[in-house]
């Protein structure tokens, strides 16, 4: 039923893992001792998501800046064109923010659970045991597809579980899905 | 888990003929109310037009219309009764309904969370009962309405026995598992406890104060009525309504789970199977504290029952909790949040507390109305750590524990490093807790 992408697994993991090592992002410090073997190997997101988000930011806010400048400049006078600085400021502020947010996203597959960590100001870290997964979903919208991206979402019996990894390589997303389903079946538990 | 026991499979082959049954013949009468209710609803919704329409009609046409409506409803009721069948197989309960739009529900017995027998007042007069089935993930509850009183009891016992893993040939004989009474709430205690509940007085005060104020402000009868009626309704529901529904609350223990029987007018008999309770909450309102009373609430996946004990002394309530979650004691000591939590939640931070035993994750919240939530480690679906910017500056974080009943228990404002440790430790604990958890078929 599931298609497997064995080669995608190799490349996806090694490339991403290699890239992640250069990220000294804020890590959870209080790891329990005696779990050295189970130390999570964090994997970051490929740069495609950042590219897509930055492009969308520039397209939307850039056109808003130009539109505001032209409209207010022509209709109300050149002084009013200063209003265009507002979206421009948002654009300039958003550019590094997107980078920060993108860098904060990472996930790790441990022996029995999946860890997802994200957010800079609002930090969130989720642990989902494989045995609790009810459904693993791979989605890819039209824009995401254009940039070659896919997201993986895990559903458990609790709707509050927001375990979602966006902006993955489609091959990596499929590998993750297959691996999670496999592990979920092996460790499945009732409610 | 999904394979039936050898005995069940053998019996299934021996008895391939499915005995389909119908509901109690009184059922069609229930449907006959529908058109009357529709007309009444229309009249209430749009009273002016209803009156105009009514004055135009003569008495004979009115009677004819009414007769036609009742006849049509009776026919509809009869046909829907005629087309509704149910059958119990080794693994499933099958319900076939619908005259035009056919619907067949196959309810897997091993996924059955609870079976409740309820008897509204009229049903009690007619000697029939309604069987409600709780299944995980189903938005709409399947119910069998109505069955004969005796039939409903026998069917419930059979369903629970089969769900619990008894072989079908003995399922009939197990019958109603004998119940041992654990707790009975006297009417006087219930009444006093409701009088000592702030919500009762708040709604009552609102119902008495708001309408006169509105009258002075607007002098419009309709505005006053439109606000007074819902307020009075809410006040009634939270005082008299709760008394009526929680009257004669009895909790009994039987092999198929905890039995909860209650109700003054509408009798309800609920069963909470063991091992399916996701969260237990022990609530202690401010005014009950001097008397040492508590209220115990439950979260069961796919079930609406939420109250286990409406009011009881703490020791009694804790002994009942120990029956629902075997081997669990409600911890007395909680680790409070660090002092700097006052920067995030002033004053109320003192209410937050956390305790973790080897079987449950316990979080306390509330200062005046204390609420202690217990989640067995085996029921944890996922664990989340969240930290907002303000909390980040103070070195604090929240840890959320999600359960299968779609409820989240939160340990708020813990020290950040402690929270990070807790996150991983809790994930590990729920893994081991799950390995030792009871099987789905708890009596097998």
Quick description:
Chain A is built from five helices and seven strands. Chain A has 191 residues and is an alpha+beta fold.
Structure report:
The complex is a heterodimer of chains A (191) and B (444). Chain A is of the alpha+beta class. Chain A has a domain at 50-99. Chain A contains five helices and seven strands. Chain A has helices at 6-20, 48-75, 85-104, 142-146, 170-186, and strands at residues 43-44, 106-109, 113-118, 123-129, 133-139, 150-156, 163-168. Chain A is elongated. Chain A starts with 5 loop residues before the first helix and ends in a 5-residue tail after the last helix. Chain B folds into three domains: 15-176, PH-domain like (Roll); 187-246, no CATH class; 274-435, PH-domain like (Roll), CATH 2.30.29. Chain B is built from 13 helices and 20 strands. Chain B has a seven-stranded antiparallel β-sheet, sandwiched between helices. A seven-stranded antiparallel β-sheet of chain B has the order 13-12-11-17-16-15-14. Chain B has a three-stranded antiparallel β-sheet with strand order 1-2-3. Chain B starts with 5 loop residues before the first helix and ends in a 9-residue tail after the last helix. Classes of the chains: A alpha+beta (191), B alpha+beta (444). At the A-B interface, strand 4 of A face strand 18, strand 19 and helix 13 of B. Strand 4 of chain A pairs antiparallel with strand 18 of chain B.
């Amino acid at each position: 039923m599931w298609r497997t992408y064995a080669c995608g697994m190799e490349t996806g993991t090694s490339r991403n893992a290699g890239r992640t090592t250069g990220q000294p992002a804020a890590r959870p410090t209080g790891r329990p001792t005696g779990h050295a073997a189970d130390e999570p190997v964090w994997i970051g997101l490929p740069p495609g998501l950042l590219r897509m988000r930055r492009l969308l930011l520039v397209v939307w806010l850039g056109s808003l800046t130009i539109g505001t400048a032209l409209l207010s400049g022509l209709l109300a006078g050149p002084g009013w064109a200063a209003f265009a600085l507002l979206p421009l400021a948002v654009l300039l502020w958003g550019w590094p923010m997107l980078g920060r947010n993108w860098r904060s996203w990472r996930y790790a597959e441990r022996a029995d659970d999946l860890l997802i960590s994200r957010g800079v100001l609002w930090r969130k870290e989720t642990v989902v045991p494989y045995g609790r997964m009810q459904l693993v979903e791979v989605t890819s919208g039209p824009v995401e597809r254009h940039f070659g991206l896919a997201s993986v979402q895990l559903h458990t019996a609790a709707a509050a579980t927001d375990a979602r990894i966006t902006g993955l390589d489609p091959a990596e997303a499929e590998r993750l899905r297959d691996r999670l389903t496999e592990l979920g079946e092996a460790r499945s538990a009732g409610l | 888990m999904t394979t039936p026991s050898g005995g069940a499979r053998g019996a299934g082959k021996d008895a391939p003929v499915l005995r389909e049954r119908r509901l109690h013949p009184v059922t069609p009468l229930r449907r006959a109310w529908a058109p009357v209710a529709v007309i009444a609803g229309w009249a209430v919704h749009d009273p002016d037009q209803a009156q105009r329409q009514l004055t135009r009609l003569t008495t004979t046409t009115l009677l004819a219309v009414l007769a036609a409506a009742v006849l049509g409803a009776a026919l509809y009721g009869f046909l829907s009764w005629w087309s509704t069948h149910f059958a119990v197989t080794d693994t499933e309960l099958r319900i076939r309904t619908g005259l035009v739009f056919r619907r067949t529900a196959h309810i897997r017995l091993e996924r059955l969370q609870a079976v409740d027998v309820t008897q509204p007042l009229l049903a009690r007069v007619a000697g029939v009962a309604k069987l409600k089935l709780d299944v995980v993930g189903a938005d709409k509850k399947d119910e069998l309405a109505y069955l004969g009183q005796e039939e409903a009891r026998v069917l419930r016992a059979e369903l629970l026995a089969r769900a619990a893993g008894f072989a079908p040939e003995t399922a009939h004989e197990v019958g109603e598992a004998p119940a041992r009474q654990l707790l009975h709430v006297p009417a006087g205690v219930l009444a006093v406890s409701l009088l000592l509940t702030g919500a009762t007085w708040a709604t009552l005060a609102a119902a008495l104060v708001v309408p006169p104020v509105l009258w002075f402000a607007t002098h419009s009868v309709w505005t006053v009525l439109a606000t007074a009626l819902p307020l009075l309704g809410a006040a009634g529901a939270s005082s008299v309504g709760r008394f009526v529904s929680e009257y004669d609350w009895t909790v009994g223990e039987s092999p198929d789970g905890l039995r909860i029987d209650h109700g003054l007018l509408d009798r309800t008999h609920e069963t909470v199977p063991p091992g399916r309770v996701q969260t237990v909450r022990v609530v202690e309102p401010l005014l009950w504290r001097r008397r040492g009373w508590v209220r115990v609430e439950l979260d069961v996946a796919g079930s609406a029952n939420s109250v286990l004990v409406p009011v009881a002394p703490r020791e009694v309530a804790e002994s009942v909790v120990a029956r629902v979650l075997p081997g669990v004691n409600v911890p007395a000591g909680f680790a409070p949040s660090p002092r700097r939590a006052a920067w995030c939640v002033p004053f109320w931070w003192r209410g937050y507390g956390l305790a973790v035993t080897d079987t449950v994750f316990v979080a306390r919240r509330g200062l005046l109305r204390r609420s202690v939530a217990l989640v067995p480690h085996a029921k944890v679906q996922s664990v989340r750590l969240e930290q907002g910017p303000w909390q980040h500056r103070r070195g604090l974080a929240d840890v959320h524990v999600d359960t299968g009943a779609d409820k989240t228990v939160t340990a708020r404002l813990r020290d950040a490093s402690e929270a990070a440790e807790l996150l991983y430790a809790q994930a590990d604990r729920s893994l081991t807790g799950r390995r030792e958890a009871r099987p789905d078929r708890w009596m097998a």
